[in-house]
Design brief:
Helix content: 25-40%
Shape: elongated
Structural class: alpha/beta
Strand content: 15-25%
């Protein structure tokens, strides 16, 4: 489902101690808060007020309902008054959806002339939130805490950001990944435990033969290709006279899309070592599928294919861009060091600074015809790169902050999409930290998704998270990795 198809349940905490008038006020205010926040335009999904919990049965029942409602991507709880935490134990222990503890209060200011004990009894969010927070900590329940005034823009944006993360978790649990063939021979980091990944992340990762793709390609009609060619020319500049090669890419894309749709898959991988029966490695075909939200992993890397799909789902409607990426080569001039991110063909045009060009060039690998591909530069700005690796017994999600620049040279003979950046905290330290943590050469690159969202996603999925920031040192990272290794061995 898309972002607009999900909703989040707003569940308020109180108790009978304060009498019916207080509970009526709490209910009225909860409706008002939801209406105002939904109308703000800052929440990517609809917030739905469900009830004010006053008993353990109410807590249990609303959680059971949330767990089995496919539209519900998570719950947002807030304690308007003091809500005794023991009544939440059963419900929160059963909760299978992401949970955000929203620490706010209805009134912005303390009304100096009006404040009395009636006001104090009604407006006990400070009291209630601490009780509610304790039970979350006591249960060791994964949760996001968002604090701030509910009408403030920054507070609403943080809540909306967490909603995107929760949608990423819901998307992950339904994700199916199509592998055309196996991964590239003798490569270590693209391997992984598919059973553990399905248990932890929900992904179903299976293989379809390349021969089936070729059979499907043979059934694609000229009319279908003509229609897709119109899409290409509407979105990209056609910088080649070799239309037959471009049409072959369209044939590949249409066939892959049909198989993905038939099998309800939202991501795929392939490898240039298994192109049996195909004339070209899919380049433009893969790039255009990614532009439509499909995840991709080169060289059979199904883990990065899945993560690309998830980050694209989380950033739906945003315009910075998210792409499959690879650290390709370095610029090591002292004081002016950069990474050049690219791939043989398959970088998503959503990250382009300008209008991409369709070009045809030899690939130099894979022993096939020169394929059509999109060529462009990425734009400047802050971004992240993310790598999911299998540590044997657990999954580790590595996230690094980066700062992208306009490529410092034209590179006129490099016919691929490219992005240039400096990794945090600086090139040398950032590179040493990435390698120390075991980060892969394939990543998901995103201007839209944040490190905070990835940390929240890892918490929801119960996997290890490593964040390389402007303040990270090799020594601190090694220490954190050692402690994390001990912790995960005990879990």
């Amino acid at each position: 489902m898309g972002m607009n198809n999900y909703e989040f349940w707003f569940v308020v905490g109180s108790q009978f101690l304060y009498g019916p008038e207080v509970l009526e006020t709490v209910d009225r205010r909860a409706h008002e808060m939801v209406d105002v926040m939904n109308a703000s335009g800052r929440l990517p999904c609809r917030l739905v007020y469900k009830l004010t919990v006053k008993t353990s049965d109410e807590a249990d029942n609303v959680v059971k309902a949330a767990n089995y409602d496919d539209r519900c991507a998570g719950i947002v709880t807030w304690c308007h008054t003091f809500s005794p935490s023991k009544l939440w134990i059963g419900g929160l222990s059963r909760l299978q959806k992401p949970w955000c503890h929203f620490a706010t209060q209805y009134n912005r200011e303390i009304p100096n002339d009006e404040i009395d004990m009636d006001f104090m009894n009604l407006n006990q969010a400070a009291h209630g939130d601490r009780e509610h927070g304790f039970i979350g900590a006591r249960l060791r329940a994964p949760r996001k805490v968002v604090a701030g005034y509910w009408q403030d823009e920054d507070t609403q944006l943080r809540l909306g950001s967490w909603m995107r993360t929760a949608v990423g978790a819901a998307f992950s649990r339904e994700l199916r990944i199509m592998r055309f063939g196996d991964n590239m021979r003798d490569v270590a980091v693209t391997e992984g435990d598919k059973v553990e990944v399905q248990k932890k992340l929900g992904w179903q990762v299976n293989t379809w033969p390349v021969g089936l793709l070729v059979e499907t390609m043979d059934k694609v009609t000229d009319a279908e290709i003509d229609a897709l060619m119109d899409e290409y020319t509407a979105a990209y500049d056609l910088a080649t006279d070799d239309l037959e090669t471009v049409r072959y890419q369209a044939r590949e894309e249409l066939a892959m899309q049909k198989l993905l749709d038939e099998n309800k898959c939202r991501a795929f991988s392939n490898t240039f070592q298994d192109l049996y029966g195909m004339r070209q490695l899919p380049g433009l075909a893969t790039q255009h599928l990614m532009a439509k939200g499909i995840g991709y992993g080169g060289e059979g890397d199904w883990k990065v294919a899945g993560m690309t799909a998830i980050l694209k789902a989380m950033s739906e409607g945003m315009t910075g861009g998210t792409a499959f990426m690879e650290d390709y080569t370095y610029h090591l001039v002292k004081g002016n060091e950069y990474s050049l991110g690219a791939h043989m063909l398959e970088v998503c045009p959503s990250v382009a600074a300008g209008r991409p060009r369709i070009e045809v060039h030899p690939l130099g690998i894979g022993d096939r015809e020169p394929p059509a591909r999109l060529v462009f530069e990425g734009h400047a700005g802050s971004a992240i790169v993310v790598s999911l690796i299998d540590m044997g017994g657990r999954l580790r999600l590595i996230c690094q902050d980066i700062e992208c620049v306009k490529p410092i040279m034209d590179m006129p003979n490099l016919p691929v999409a490219r992005v240039m950046w400096r990794a945090m905290p600086d090139f040398v330290t950032g590179l040493e930290c990435w390698i120390t943590a075991g980060g892969a050469h394939h990543t998901v690159f995103s201007y839209d998704v944040t490190a905070e969202q990835m940390r929240d996603w890892a918490r929801i999925m119960d996997i290890e998270f490593v964040h390389i920031t402007k303040d990270t040192t090799v020594e601190s990272l090694e220490h954190d990795l050692m402690l994390s290794d001990l912790m995960w061995k005990l879990k």
